[in-house]
Amino acid sequence: MFSAPTTTRADSPRSAMVCLTMPSRRPYSSTEKRDTGHSWGTVFPRMISDPTGDRQAQLRREHHGEPAPDLPHARQHRRAPRLTRLCIALILILCRGVESVMGGARRAVVAAVLVTGLAAGCGGGGGAGGEKADAITVAVSSSPSATALKAIAKEYTKESGVAVKFVDLPYNELATKTLLAARKPKQGYDVVQFDSPMLAPLVSGGALADIGEQAGSSKAYALDDFPEQVQEYAKYRGKTYGLPLSTEPYVLWYNTKLFEKHDLKPPKTWAQYVANARKLKAAGAYGSDSGFGSQIGGYYWLESLYLSGGQLLKPGTCTPDLDSDVARKATETYLSLKPHTPATAVNGGGNEMTTAFVQGDVGQMVNATGYYSIMADPKQSKIPGDFDAALPPGVDDGGRTLLFGWLIGVGKNAKAPDEAWDFLEFALGKESASRLIDEGAPPPARQSLLDDPAATKELPYLPTLVEASKKGEHLPYLKQMPEIITALSAELSKAATGDWTAERLTASANGKVKDVLAGVDSCA
Which CATH class is domain 250-403+474-516? Predict the structure, then answer.
């Protein structure tokens, strides 16, 4: 495979000599085979760490008939930034034009002058002054996803020569510190991990770059491998500002031992869910596991509304829709589950619900898929191998489950935006999805993972995750959403402890949301 001499890069001091040294052909095309022996953008060997220390990677190699490579990842990343590559192509065209009308020393001198000017104009794109950056800064928040990124970053650095510096930020400071860093030109974080409720504030504050063109055109990333709903999850007002780092829709989790013992089936409707809860309670178990906490209980209440066909806002407006007939009926059902829920979970949210579920005496709950690792861990759970996932009740009747999960994007004022994208493409590309799983991260909803027997064996809930994502919807991306969730959670907690009726709760919550959104013109 041909590669241009390093002294003839467009950003090299000797770039004026490019016409005299580079063969008259493109450095590579989208279909040429590179040093991996595979076609660019079609098949890459899997990212594999220590072939002897990673059993899941070894099983995947055996299944696919892949030899253990000498390098952690055979894909070549030592390439010039995208803008530099475009400039090289322009330089070649210019050189050929000069060659066709001039000759000898005059041709060389004119070519040198023209190419030097063009190379200077092609400076941006990598690090400062157009030089390829030698490091990027990645802001993360403590999570299995962040841990996986740190492991993969070591391989990226080994192959690209670009160091990856991680800045660990507490969850409650992640958005604020990202916004502060973005205020200084070329001083913001290159890559930012963030939660979906932070998307609107970060974009509105100028902290995230639109990466729709890169994501849509990258064959290595393969955006179309995601369900449309997951692609929309990473968009704000029609533009893509993030990539799915993890996809964590709400699904039904149920204790298979308790269901078999009491002859129960995964409920497809809320009426069936309530019937299961009553039967389990009569048998001495907890029939449900629902959060009513004053901090984030509102998320789980909204999930029941969306699964019942309700919504937070009337379509296309900023008008709350929590006092509709659908919302009142769904709220009545949700409140009726409190007596069937462990006391430790009533005053909490997802964490407390999961802690109760893994004790083995809770029959069912609707919770995010991101909690799977806790349920499956023998050190934290009493039910490894004795639970399963299914679509939550209501989706077969037109309801939608809520989509959650980490996103990750490029900083708008990044010091090295090209290298930032290069890292994301490396770490989150289609052929890297299994590596995320190997490192313990909740997977993104890539449909191609369903064709990987090792992945579905390691994570049996993967088919449910992908299917739920196809029937999912994210909450409106509003800067006011954290305030809305706090208000809804507080009202829900009052209702749970004060025996409010569903009508009182929905009317009160509707008024709270209306107050929060007063004066807001667009909630699309």
Answer: alpha beta
